[in-house]
Amino acid sequence: MYTIQKKVELNPTVTLMEVQAPLISKKAEPGQFIILRVDEDGERIPLTIADYDREKGTITIIFQIVGATTAKLNQLKEGEAIHDFVGPLGVPTHTEGINQVAIVGGGVGCAIAYPVAKKFHELGAVVHSIVGFRTKDLVILEEEFRKVSDKYLLMTDDGSYGEKGLVTNALKGLLDAGEKYDEVVAIGPMIMMKFVSQLTKAYNIKTMVSMNPVMIDGTGMCGGCRLTVGGQTKFACVDGPEFDGHQVDFDEAMARASFYRDFERHAYDETCNLFKKEVN
Amino acid sequence: MPNMSMKKNEMPAQAPEIRNKNFQEVTLGYSTEQAIDEAQRCLNCKTKPCVSGCPVQIHIPAFIQEIVNGNFEAAYQIIAQTSSLPAVCGRVCPQESQCEKYCVRGIKGESVGIGRLERFVADWHNAQPDVKIEKPASNGHKVAIVGSGPAGLTCAGDLAKKGYDVTIFEALHLAGGVLVYGIPEFRLPKSIVQKEVNALMQLGVTIHTNAVVGKSISVDELMESGYEAIFIGSGAGLPRFMGIPGENLNGVYSANEFLTRINLMRSYQMGSNTPIMSIRKVAVVGGGNVAMDAARCAKRLGAEEVSIVYRRSETELPARKEEVEHAKEEGILFKLLSAPLEVLGDEKRFVKGLKCIAMELGEPDASGRRKPVEKPGSEFILDVDCVIAAIGTSPNPLIKSTTSGLDTQKWGGIIVNEETGQTSKKGVFAGGDAVTGAATVILAMGAGKIAAKGIDEYLMGKTQA
Known about the structure:
- The complex is a heterodimer.
- By secondary structure, chain A is an alpha/beta fold.
- In chain A, 32% of the residues lie in helices and 32% in strands.
- In chain A, the strands form three sheets. A seven-stranded antiparallel sheet of chain A has the order 6-1-2-5-4-3-7. A seven-stranded mixed sheet of chain A has the order 11-10-9-8-12-13-16, with helices on both faces.
- In chain A, α3 (110-122) links the parallel β8 (100-106) and β9 (126-133).
- By secondary structure, chain B is α/β, with parallel strands linked by helices.
- Helices cover 35% and strands 17% of the residues of chain B.
- Chain B contains 18 helices and 15 strands.
- The interface between A and B is large, with 41 and 40 residues.
């Protein structure tokens, strides 16, 4: 049983859950993901592992409520169980030989960027974290990030907290001030990862991005998660989810992410209506 | 007296215009009268050429004689001696190229409908009140099976019957492998697969779903945790694409993804949360059984027009003849001698057409089939909004890359001793698509059987030594 041990609402649209999954927690590494189904008729969705506790046997997931499935997931309470939970899938973050790293997180992407920052910190690397949010109310994991970062720059679009501006401005500022990074890791909305990659390309700094495409099985069977990297078709589930940002065809990936948008919106409305009925 | 009719009893089926709008089973099965009548066509000949054509060597004339005598349960027991999944095989085996190919009645006229009779017997048995299956006494040996498709289920069944303590590890949330995610409901109802899986569980087989061997746990870790032998039946893997421009546009699916959304995730049903695009006109690239399944599913989702695009001619279609006939009856179009060149997209990167070129057949190639060559200047555009690639798969890298000492072919298939299923790694056996590349359910079952025997001999030898 994949029981929810702990549930915390990090902000109005982002929830953290600690899920009992001893086998997965034994193996999990930063950068990997799980696939879950909320209930018997549920769809399979991939979520990147936000943290793990091998002793407690738990996996932490942090998700934004964006569609019907995440809305249903958010309805589950502590003590209840998720129907299916499988992993750890994908290739872990590559951490060897990196002495100084910039971690760029955007929005809920910070949930995935955090374990990466933590891992680099534990390995003794100098970690500069640059995180961006639309507004103050949406900020997550500030304390956690500060603990594992040698520098922590927080940006908001509206200037309601931290500095006003985009993460790319902040990163450019650090680079222009002479900071040298062996690698930049960018995790967040695709458009953010695209622009971070464009920026670092000009500075010739290797940049890894974490892709989160549509997926079904997550084990290399369906091919739904394919994307073009360096002109070749790759499968995010078995070849990724992290790829060289300078090689990823972001425009194609963004178009593919919109494949089911209309369906999703419809399903989400239906789910919301259902919840309303249950309340009435 | 045998029934000397030259023709098989026809298989009752849903009318094409009705069935191409629903997902219920197409063929309805013989009535008792039809089954007995068909069984009487068997001459019960001494040479039994049919048996040699069966990958699991079912005692075919013997079970057919029991049908003639009206002893349907006895007929079932004869099949069950060698086949673990009769209701499945009676439906999806390519009998015309196996048992029925060698039937002496087929020399002049049509061969005996062996597959249809097998299905009749299995369905008759399944319709009887459940008999509690006795769990055999344990022999104390633990075996792990990777994958719950036809190879894994067969291997598990054979070993469990011998008293082994068998555990299946399945990556998906449901057991059955290709029988549940690949083959559509209208060809193989999922309730039949479930029944077979339940029977295994009654035999004492444990099934862990959501367990990806190679990720959640490795083959080496399974060995360390006390499994004395392991069977890898992980199936075919990564779907192949055509290698043409535009194949990552929205509206291009691999057959694996398209079929999984429909069969496993039930995206055609109200209440399923898994989306599938609403399709108008569809091109399915490929000519095998999977291509036929995808085309017929697309039709049932409400597509106005569904075309199979295949670069050779009708005689070379690798799909079963019956599947091709069913597809044609349901209104699937066949654009033969046509090869795709490019998927065309609109400004939002959704598919709006498939550019193809006409082909003609030249000299035979390495496979013995005549090689298709492009006819210059014959390009044409198919008006479609969905393209499904059903051109095969390449083996999944997960197990190979995480198992020490497991030798594979250059193309990724696991290398085994064909007589025992033994791999290059001690105690590890393999079979099915993971070894051969994409093949049939019955061949995978045959491989599962061989490996079960191989594992039994290996472990018994070890005990005595």
